[in-house]
Write a structure and sequence with these properties.
Gyrase A, domain 2, four-stranded antiparallel β-sheet, RNA Polymerase Alpha Subunit, Chain A, domain 2, 2 domains, 3 helices
Length: 191
């Protein structure tokens, strides 16, 4: 198997995978989008919401805001607290989500969440946790697609949503595949 890097700039990573199979290319794509863990806001508690928008709608929008996910140092059970307290008139953007952890923060500060009218207020507490795309789309680290370029060659396109660099998405996918193969191998050996 050979890998040639075609582009590695910003949130985009393109590479050619050669001397491989459809099964391996598909496994890499599915693992990258469904099994690479990222942080996302999962629990939202409203203490005040005098806006015209339902709590559930605001919570859904907040949950889809990408959060920077450091490469190591966090466990699946870790929770990161976020808070937001805003008064209108104003448009509330993702930059107003204040994290209790300087490492886990909003990846894109310019995402509009809600427009507040005169004297409308929101006061919210949120908890972020690690999860995978198999659970919910808000945990997906990015878009991963490939095109077959011959019998054993594939061109991959990876675009990060901002939680981590696109090359890291692929490296973490390789790690997940390796862990799963080792687990399967040890179980088969016990038969």
């Amino acid at each position: 198997m050979k890998i040639d890097i075609l582009e590695d700039k910003g949130n985009v990573f393109r590479f050619a995978l050669k001397e491989s199979t459809n099964a391996y290319a598909n496994a890499l794509k599915r693992t990258a989008t469904g099994s690479v863990a990222t942080f996302a806001i999962d629990k939202v508690t409203f203490y005040e919401n005098t806006s015209a928008i339902f709590d559930e709608y605001i919570a859904h929008r907040i949950g889809l805001v990408p959060l920077v996910t450091p490469s190591k140092g966090y466990k699946p059970e870790d929770e990161i607290l976020f808070t937001m307290e805003e008064t209108g008139p104003k448009t509330v953007y993702s930059k107003e989500l204040n994290s209790s952890d300087k490492e886990v923060k909003v990846a894109n500060e310019g995402i509009p969440i809600i427009k507040l009218g005169e004297d409308q207020q929101v006061r919210i507490e949120m908890k972020a946790r690690l999860g995978t795309g198999l659970e919910h789309a808000k945990f997906q680290p990015g878009l991963v697609a490939y095109e077959q370029k011959g019998d054993d060659a594939f061109e991959f396109y990876v675009e990060s949503f901002g939680q981590m660099p696109p090359r890291q998405i692929i490296n973490k996918a390789f790690d997940v595949i390796e862990e799963r193969l080792q687990e399967l191998s040890s179980k088969v050996k016990k038969l």
